[in-house]
Every structure is written in C-alpha cells, then in structure tokens.
Amino acid sequence: MVKIPAHVTIIMDGNGRWAKRKGLERLEGHKAGVESVKAAVEFAAENKIGYLSLFAFSEENWNRPQNEINGLMELMIDAIIREQKTLMDNAIRFRVIGDKSRLGETLNSKIDEIEGITASNNGLTLIIFLSYSGKWDILQAAERYSKLLKKGSIQDDVPLTHELMDSLLSTTGVPDPDLLIRTSGEQRISNYMLWQCAYTEFYFTDVLWPDFRKNDFRRALETYSERERRYGKTGDQINKIK
C-alpha cells in the first residue's frame, strides 16, 4: 500500500541539461519543464496530496545570464495566466513563497491576483518557491523576531522556541515536507527549506525534470512508503506507538 504524504516538495532540476542534450537553448528546457509541472500537479491532486511545492527559482539563480532570467519570468507569468481556469476547476489553492521584492511588478501583480482568486479553494495547495533560499528564510525570520522584540509584541524573557520560529518563517501555516524529490541526479538540497526539511525523506532520481511524469512521481511515493520515519526514536518505540 502506498502511503500518501501530506506535503511533497520537488526541486525541479535538469532543464538546462535537457536542452543542451537536444541542441536547444536553455530556455527551451524551461518551457518543456512546464509540462512536467502540469503532470506533477495532476498526480498530486489525483492522489489527494495536501500540499505540493515546487522550487522554481532560487535566490542564487539571480546570478544567471539576464536573458535567461527575463525569459524565465515571462514564462512564469504566461504559465500563471494560462493555468488560472485549471486551478479553479480543480479547487487548487495557489501560493508563491520567496523574496518577492526582487520580482518584477507585472509578475507580482499576477501572483497577487491568482493567490486572491484561489484563496478559498479547498483542494490541493500548490506552492511555487520563487526567489527563495533557506538561509534568506531563516534570516528574515530572525529580523521579524527582532522587530517584535523592539515593538514589545514579545517580551525579552520569552525564548525563541521551535514553534515560534515556525510562525516567523515564510512557510508559516504550511506543514513541513514529508518527501523531497530532486530530479537530474544531483544529491543535495541547494539551500532549500533548510529549517523545514530537518526530518524530510529525500528521493533522488536521474530523470531530468522535462522528462518527469506521473510514473516517476509514483515511484518516488513507492520508495517513500517503504521507509520508516523515526524522528529520533528507535524502531521498537515506533512499533509500540503503532
């Protein structure tokens, strides 16, 4: 029996390599990756996964050539516009998490619009991480904590607990990922949700993101189902709880 995680997150890697192998420009790989996004969203919705989050653009990606960045931003705007009806028809709630101050006005406007339109949807929550890094997230949480102290909203003697930290992160209200999938054969998390992935199960596949389809997603869930999540406990302790 396949266990269904509450939250699956995917590092969508390999677009550039996919394009290079086919003698295409890198942006063509990103365009092809949009079909993989559709397949992943459909699979998550069909299998009653509560949250699907996708790492689309990291803080470090701003160092890429400007023409690739511009193309990616246009691609994201077009994808959001095209998928609005699909999101509504399937009761999918759409969110974007990251440093939005670095995104353009047009993209931010479309993000705000779709987030508002889908806010009351009660199906799958689809989260796109844009201009995001785990270190940025922790730093902005620390800044929020400092501001709360200065305002007197939090007393100096109140400790910074795990629960309080969770509430200060950009992912507040979103459960930590149960399963992280990374495509293209790379085996690292690349500064992604460093706090939130403390007990996440990792699944790495050699499949390049533009080739990732529902069967690949299913294999990841099957592997996840075979694992025993102990959270620091022994196997005997877990079995007693069961």
Automatic annotation (TrEMBL):
Q: Which cofactor does it need?
A: Mg(2+)
Q: NCBIfam families per the record? A: uppS
Q: What is its EC number?
A: 2.5.1.31
GO terms assigned for molecular function: ditrans,polycis-undecaprenyl-diphosphate synthase [(2E,6E)-farnesyl-diphosphate specific] activity
| Record's keyword terms, sorted | Transferase
**Which class of enzymes does this protein belong to?**
transferase
Q: What are the BP-aspect GO terms? A: polyprenol biosynthetic process
Record bears the keyword Flavoprotein: no
PROSITE patterns the UniProt entry points to: UPP_SYNTHASE (PS01066)
Which SUPFAM superfamilies does UniProt cross-reference here?
Undecaprenyl diphosphate synthase (SSF64005)
Q: A Pfam family matched by this chain, by name?
A: Prenyltransf
* This protein's name: Ditrans,polycis-undecaprenyl-diphosphate synthase ((2E,6E)-farnesyl-diphosphate specific)
Is Nucleus among the key words of this record? no
